[in-house]
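debug: dumping io for the single-chain case to check the tokenizer round-trip. Nothing else runs in this session.
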Amino acid sequence: MPRNVVKVILVLALAVCIPVAAPAFPEKPITLIVPYPAGGATDVVIRPLAEAAGKILGQPVLVENKGGGGGAVGVGAIIGKEPDGYLLSVVVTSLHRVAHINKLAFDTVKDVSPILRVGGYLYGVLVQPDSKYKTLKDLIEQARANPGQVSYMASGIGTGGHIAAEEMAANAGVKFNHLPSKGDQESSAALLGGHVDFISTTSGWIPLVEAGKLKLLATYGEERVKRFPDVPTVKEAGYKVVHNSPIGIVGPKGMAPERVKVLHDAFQKALADPGFLKAMASYEMPVLYQNTADFAKFWAEAYVEAGEQVKKFLQP
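debug: decoded output
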């Protein structure tokens, strides 16, 4: 065989054996959906986290708000999309309750790729400053005397504020009238306008409480909040309710482990960003980090727990 032919064959053989380098990731901006309206607690804390992660990744992480359906509208926007890591969504455990209540068109566990858990919420029970309800006990007693007449808003059916209020009502042996909203701001506006008796929602209300526009009757945490040391927890009042509704980040089903790791590592590092921590502290929200494997396990278990909550507190 001629020598030049042998050389050609060797060159071709080497070309076949040399692995093709995978394209760099990310090569373009990433979109992170917040499944709640702009201005709420989720939106306010996720934006600095996304900004910090973008700096680490070398590409912007653009936040897009898609509220509605208790988080289902926003998360649903990534279902079935290309699992290339460029479209992600924030998820909250309350999404599982929405799935049990409404039978969503997607599976909240099987149709997403968990990346990491980020943190949780502070929930509270709030009234107008001049409300006749001076304590949580006042509110409960009014509901006891007038079943179904005391109204409240939470950010959608099956959300943390909703399930917390219904669990509190069940433990107290009373019945409230729930009017779902699309987010924290709508709930606060309804209360400010006198359209409901109280709200049960995440800590987007803190500035309103500090400004004297709303009054905090109780919080749903394990312990009192440092910023409001005189405000008792719902648990202290004798109603065994504690809620923090952990928050995580997911992508579409089928994401490559290598890209999941890149995203996980960037967002994990971003959890230490001063801007993010300041935003979390401003809403008294705890950082509750879990890595990909632990978050995937937690997310699946949370679905089962959500089904039990719906059956116990939300079904007739």
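debug: round-trip ok. Residues 123 and 202 are 4 Å apart (CA to CA).
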